[in-house]
């Protein structure tokens, strides 16, 4: 069905902006008193509401009341929201001064979430995940990447990925699953890191292919997880099997970003430890730099150098990293808004990082702007000026969210 939606005080289309590098607010296309024509879940036209109404008198009108600013739906290109249990204990230790790595060594950390997630059955996990997906959708996040990585054996990694698939069949949000079996060398695996990754390549990834559970593979490259030498053959082998690659890179120490670029990863995520040297490597690559302010806030660490990355010409996306350990809050807009004040990002750069640039990190070209032909994934904020949204640092939420043209 074809319909005209509006009127909106402003439509921010995010049209015509570069995929890479800095963007100024005066480059934003803003349509005042705007309307959108939607058909078959796609945007057919945007423009002045009254003009669209006059020139398309046959169209049904979906009226929007009050002041509203319309944006593309957000894309959260990095989450770990398929988990059971809590790590509140870790957080209380951390704010007393213990580090992430100290807590991991003393029985907390990722391995604790692995125990709690292994103990939940698939139905329980599906239920917990569905609630978190719905919360994100209500916040205007219409596409969500979700990683496994709290199973860390074939059975439990498959359980997680099957839970993600189950939710994707019932939720209106689009879910993009990623296999993160290389999150940590599991404590109960008898053998080296290389032997574990070979085991994943031989036993887990083929089943993921057969059941069509994920088309992306992630690895955590860090002193506490997998090193560069072990990671490269794993990533190359996964790529040869047809998986896209993404990397948890440079969170505490550098080397991950370099591996990501060398292996042709679609994205390198975290980058809190990256410097101008790493940023320069991104300049001529297709790898998206994904920064995760929620992890900086959760760990009390510095932000990734988003300004330096943009000025070096990177394609910068911002994601929530929502997970039970380092980033328990999961409020993507709040995190992006707060980081932008410290990192000095323009509103245009923040919205690009939450929409079409984040879509690029997931190799999705059909969303992230309100151009004609794009998915009608949209959200409207109750204000009359797009600048109000970051100004309120996440406390204004979208009052209306559309997925493929249908109101949630
Ligand atoms: O992206 N850094 C590694 N993995 C997650 C944290 C997972 C956890 O602490 O449970 C992250 O921050
Ligand atoms: Fe992560």
TrEMBL record:
Keywords of this entry: Histidine metabolism, Hydrolase, Iron, Metal-binding, Zinc
InterPro entries, A to Z: Amidohydro-rel, HutI, Metal-dep_hydrolase_composite, Metal_Hydrolase
A Pfam family recorded for this sequence: Amidohydro_1
Ion transport is among the record's keywords: no
Record EC number: 3.5.2.7
Domain Amidohydrolase-related residue range list: 69-380
The protein's annotated pathway: Amino-acid degradation
Keyword Zinc set for record: yes
GO molecular function, one term: imidazolonepropionase activity
Protein name in UniProt: Imidazolonepropionase
């Amino acid at each position: 069905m074809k319909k005209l939606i509006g009127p909106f005080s402003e439509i921010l289309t995010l049209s015509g902006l570069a995929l890479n590098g800095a963007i100024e607010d005066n480059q934003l296309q803003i349509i005042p008193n705007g309307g959108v024509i939607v058909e078959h879940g796609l945007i057919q036209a945007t423009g002045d509401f009254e003009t669209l109404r006059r020139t398309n008198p046959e169209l049904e009108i979906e009226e929007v009341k009050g002041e509203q600013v319309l944006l593309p739906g957000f894309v959260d290109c990095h989450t770990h929201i398929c988990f059971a249990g809590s790590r509140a204990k870790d957080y209380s230790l951390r704010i007393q001064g213990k580090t992430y790595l100290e807590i991991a060594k003393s029985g907390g950390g990722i391995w604790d979430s692995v125990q709690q997630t292994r103990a939940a059955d698939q139905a329980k996990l599906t239920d917990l995940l569905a609630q978190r997906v719905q919360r994100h959708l209500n916040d205007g996040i219409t596409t969500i990447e979700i990683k496994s990585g709290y199973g860390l054996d074939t059975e439990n990694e498959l359980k997680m990925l099957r839970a993600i698939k189950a939710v994707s069949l019932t939720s209106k949000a689009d879910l993009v699953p990623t296999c993160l079996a290389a999150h940590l060398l599991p404590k109960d695996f008898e053998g080296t890191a290389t032997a574990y990754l070979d085991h994943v390549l031989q036993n887990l990834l083929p089943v993921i292919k057969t059941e069509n559970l994920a088309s992306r593979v992630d690895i955590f490259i860090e002193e506490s997880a997998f090193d560069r030498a072990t990671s490269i053959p794993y990533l190359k082998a996964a790529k040869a099997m047809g998986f896209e690659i993404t990397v948890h890179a440079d969170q505490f120490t550098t080397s991950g970003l370099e591996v990501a670029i060398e292996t042709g990863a679609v994205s390198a995520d975290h980058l809190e430890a990256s410097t101008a040297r790493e940023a320069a490597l991104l300049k001529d690559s297709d790898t998206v730099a994904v920064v995760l302010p929620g992890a900086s806030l959760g760990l009390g660490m510095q932000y990734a150098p988003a300004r330096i990355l943009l000025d070096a010409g990177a394609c910068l996306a911002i994601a929530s990293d929502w997970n039970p350990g380092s980033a328990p809050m999961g409020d993507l807009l709040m995190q992006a808004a707060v980081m932008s004040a410290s990192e000095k990002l323009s509103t245009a750069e923040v919205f690009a990082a939450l929409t079409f640039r984040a879509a690029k990190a997931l190799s999705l070209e059909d969303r992230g702007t309100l151009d004609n032909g794009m998915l009608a994934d949209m959200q409207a904020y109750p204000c009359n000026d797009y600048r109000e949204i970051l100004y309120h640092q996440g406390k204004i939420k979208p009052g209306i969210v559309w997925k493929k043209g249908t109101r949630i």
